[in-house]
């Protein structure tokens, strides 16, 4: 009797989906803080803005490593197509993250040139965010594939749609960053964060509306997924919940609540993430290869899963512990309290 191998693809899909969302959430808010940093009103405010993420910012990029390595290990065919297709924005993102990290450290040590490092921190955060948005836009549009290889140009990823998603993600991360600062600061700086949070929120609303209309126009598969009957009835809760969350987020940015604005921004990102997943399922190389077609051998997935399932709880524990230790407000005189 032939024993069918266990299907590891759904499990690896959950792990990668979890890792990507956690990266967007955790590194998203600290990149957003970095973007807003350049608009802080004075030196004291900038120091507080930077100190609000100082204990946690570098650990947030653990999820980026997990996502990249997991994609290579579990879905090597997708990795071989996607990476050359978005080579330049990925390169720009990695260089910007390195430049941003250097600026973060030298900001405290090279006082004489602190203004230079201030600009580097802000621009590095913005470039990394924009590059991630370009990757997302190119991914949604799909890639030119011949057989199991990318056959397009390295510049195909730069389209009006991907450039727009780059700007949209800058607004989105800015909203996350503003929510974090509202939760971590008080007084005039918190009021400043609320104001910039409203600016970013308006940008996010425009982006969600435009992308929701644009994606069905560029890809008939997505249009059919969302608007064919009975899908339109089953999927209608997604835009409805998104609209309710948007209303809640706007109210949170304009009242005295502190954690609600950050939670609302997370909710908006979660609904957008779910919307993208619904649009593209079951493709991992959009409109070319499904998750199962791009997966590695079951034995390879099983071998790699052992280490992954051991490391994931460790990552979650030290991440949770670091946020617990540095909970509360950040202040200029005593740091966290």
Written account of the structure:
By secondary structure, the protein is mainly alpha-helical. It has one domain (9-336). Helix content is 75%, strand content 4%. It has helices at residues 9-37, 43-51, 62-74, 76-85, 87-109, 114-141, 160-184, 187-218, 220-227, 231-234, 237-254, 259-280, 291-294, 298-325; strands spanning 145-146, 149-150, 283-285, 289-290, 330-331, 335-336. A two-stranded antiparallel ribbon has the order 1-2. The longest helix has 32 residues, at 187-218.
The average pLDDT value, as a whole number, equals: 85
Specify the overall morphology.
globular
What's the number of helices? 14
Strand percentage:
under 5%
Main sheet: strands, sense, barrel: 2 strands, antiparallel
Specify Rg, calculated over alpha carbons: 21 Å
Uncertain segments: none
The total domain count is 1
Q: How much helix is in the residues?
A: over 70%
Strand and helix order: HHHHHHEEHHHHHHEEHHEE
Q: How many individual β-strands?
A: 6
Strand order of the largest sheet: 1-2
Structural class of the secondary elements?
Answer: mainly alpha
N-end to C-end Cα span:
64 Å
């Amino acid at each position: 009797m032939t024993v069918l191998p266990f299907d590891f693809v759904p499990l690896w899909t959950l792990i990668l989906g979890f890792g990507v969302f956690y990266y967007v959430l955790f590194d998203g808010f600290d990149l957003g803080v970095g973007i807003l940093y350049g608009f802080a009103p004075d030196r004291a405010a900038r120091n507080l803005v930077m100190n609000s993420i100082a204990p946690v910012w570098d650990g947030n990029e653990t999820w980026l490593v997990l996502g990249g390595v997991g994609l290579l290990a579990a879905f090597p065919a997708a990795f071989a197509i996607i990476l050359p297709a978005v080579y330049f924005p990925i390169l720009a993102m990695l260089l910007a993250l390195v430049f941003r990290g250097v600026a973060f450290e030298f900001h405290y040590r090279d006082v004489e040139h602190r203004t230079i490092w201030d600009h580097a921190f802000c621009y590095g955060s913005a470039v990394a965010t924009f590059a991630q948005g370009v990757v997302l836009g190119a991914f949604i549009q799909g890639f030119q594939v011949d057989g199991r290889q990318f056959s397009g140009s390295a510049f195909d990823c730069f389209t009006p749609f991907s450039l727009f998603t780059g700007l949209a993600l800058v607004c989105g991360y800015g909203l996350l960053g503003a929510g974090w600062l509202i939760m971590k600061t008080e007084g005039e700086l918190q009021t400043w964060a609320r104001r910039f949070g409203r600016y970013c929120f308006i940008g996010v609303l425009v982006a969600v509306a435009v992308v929701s209309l644009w994606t069905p126009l560029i890809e008939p598969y997505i249009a059919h997924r969302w608007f064919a009957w009975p899908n339109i009835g089953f999927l209608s809760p997604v835009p409805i919940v998104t609209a309710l969350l948007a209303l809640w987020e706007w109210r949170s940015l304009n009242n005295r609540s502190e954690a609600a604005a950050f939670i609302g921004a997370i909710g908006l990102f979660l609904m957008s993430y779910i919307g993208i997943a619904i649009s593209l399922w079951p493709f991992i190389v959009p409109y070319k290869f499904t998750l199962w077609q791009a997966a590695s051998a079951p034995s390879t997935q099983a071998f790699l899963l052992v280490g992954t399932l051991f490391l994931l709880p460790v990552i979650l524990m030290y991440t949770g512990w670091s946020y617990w230790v540095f909970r509360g407000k950040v202040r200029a005189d005593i740091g966290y309290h």
